Every structure is written in C-alpha cells, then in structure tokens.
Amino acid sequence: FFFFFFHRIHPSIYHIIIIHRFILKSIIYPINLLFIQTSLLTSRSLNCFQFNSSAFISRVLFVVMAKTLNGEFVRRNGVEWPFNWKQIGAWLMIVYFLTFHFGVLAPNFVDRWRPAVFLTVGALFVVHVTFFLICTFVDPADNLVRYDTIRPVTIDRSQRKHVIENNHCFFCQVKVTSRAKHCSACNKCVKDFDHHCIWMNTCIGGVTYKRFFLCILFGTMASLSEGVCCLYLFIRMYHGDSGFNKPITMYGRGTDKDSLGSYIAVSFVLCTVAFKLFVELTSFHVYLIWHRIGTFDYIKAAREREERANNEQAV
C-alpha cells in the first residue's frame, strides 16, 4: 500500500524506497543477523549476562558499548558507542546527498538525460555508501583477538616501552601477527593496521583497507559527478531552458525557480567541499599504495625524521 501511495506521489520517492529496501535486505539485515547470532552464542557459552528484551533490542540496534569481562571498553565496529561528531556529520551528509540527488536534482533533468543522471551518478553514490557501510560494520581486529578475556587497565611504561612486544599484546593478552597494531581508540589489535578513521569511527586495516580505498575512490567520482550536474542544471535554469525540465519539483512537489536554485547552489558548495576532501584522501592513499606503506608507517617515519632533525639542531 505504501509503495503504491509513494509511487502515485512521485516516482523518485518510490525509487528511494526501493533502494533503501535493497540496502536493508542485502547489507544491513544479514550483518544484523550475524552479529545477533554471534552475540547470543557467546553469551550462552560464557553465561556473562542474562538475556532480556532490552539487551536484545540494544544489540539489534548496535547502540551498546562493547565491553570485556572486567568492564573495559572495546569497540568492535563503527556503530557502537561512543560516537563522534565527524561520524554523525558523515551520516548526515550521506542522507542529504542521497535524498537531494534522487528527490531534487535528477527529477528536474529533461527526459533524455534523466535516466543517465538517475543511474550513473546514483550508482556511484550507492556503491560509495555500500563500501562505507561495509567498512563501518566489519570488525578488522586481528584473528586471535578475543573479547571474553580480562584485560589490564594500564601497563607499566618503565617495564615495557611498547604495547606489543615479540608479537604479544599486553592489553589484548594474545599473540598477534607481525603487522598488527593496538588501537587506543578501539582498545584492540587490528590486523595490518593502517589508521583509525574518524569519519567511520572504526579502524581501517586488514580486510577493510581495500573496501576503504574503493569507498573514497567512488566518493571522489560521486561528488565530482554531482557537482557537475548541479552546475549544469543551475546554468540551464537561468541561461536557457533547453536542458531544464518543467514544471520545477522538489521531492515530488512543485516549487519556484529561485528556491530550487538556492538549494542547488548550497548543494554545489557541499559537493565542492566533499570533492576536495576526497581528492586529498584518495591522492594520499594512492601515494601510500605506490610506495607500499601504510598510514601508520608514514606517520611513524615522519616522526622519526622530525626527531632526528630536532636532535641535529640540538647538537
């Protein structure tokens, strides 16, 4: 009934709902089911809490703060508390651009261009969001890391200079791989650690690095394509109507040219900012891949060069 109702209002809203259902069925629901089953099996085997409805709802919605047996914080994925404002901003920008593209920008193109704008630029957005969700939900921890152990709160730096020595992490209390690093923000060892992404609120490394690179690559192409479409439609609105669709609509309702023009102008500015960030990030990781190093290795080498320069100046 609701699909028929929204399709009668405007086809673009119907398309948004179809894409939303596809993302839910193909990505969110399987991940939810996997995490729920894992949580239930772990809780039954360890008998670490009594099952009740509130705990079940919390685990379904991923709004609980993951903890070890002794109450120490550890984050398994990017949708567990605590959130940060940049992560929330990234989610809001994703929702904004998806609704703007499918509800405002694409429907106002002429008939011969509208399918291409819907499918090509829309596909770039969907792929970008898909990889964003994969990186956010997947746990990149080292294979030997366990969450059912009692971890120390601190370590004596006078006794141990590093958290990981001889491939043994003193916080996770397990043997890890040689390229694993302990993330202080997530309080766990990450296999092939690259960096902690503040926009996803989770670590990038191991199984998630390739997905992360594809995420920022498609984000670059999507923001560029959206900005070009915004600029094209804005110019056609005020300098010729050959590429402009009439009547003017926003989310299936009629509006005036000035309101739509202001909306497109603001979106174009946001696309420019997003494109700048994506280009800088993508270029940096292309440089790292070309030199076969990671973000952590790059930062570590830069700190060592800075320390050597300071020591030389001191001498």
What does this structure look like?
By secondary structure, the protein is mostly helical. The chain is 58% helix and 8% strand. The protein has eight helices and nine strands. The strands form four sheets. Strands 1-2-3 form a three-stranded antiparallel sheet, with no helix packed on it. The protein has a two-stranded antiparallel sheet with strand order 4-5. It has a two-stranded antiparallel sheet with strand order 6-7. Strand 2 and strand 3 form a beta hairpin. It is elongated, with a radius of gyration of 24 Å. It starts with a helix and ends with a helix. The relative contact order is 0.11. The N terminus is likely disordered.
Main beta sheet, described?
Answer: 3 strands, antiparallel
DSSP strand count: 9
Taken as a percent bin, the fraction of beta residues is 5-15%
Spans of at least 5 consecutive residues whose pLDDT stays below 50 are 1-20, 28-65
Helix fraction by DSSP (H/I, runs of at least 4): 55-70%
Spatial sequence of strands, sheet with the most strands: 1-2-3
Provide mean pLDDT, rounded: 76
**Count of helix runs:** 8
What's the shape?
Answer: elongated
Provide the structure class: mainly alpha
Q: What's the gyration radius in Å?
A: 24 Å
The topology string of helices and strands comes to HHHHHEEEEEEEHEEHH
Report how far the terminal alpha carbons are from each other.
78 Å
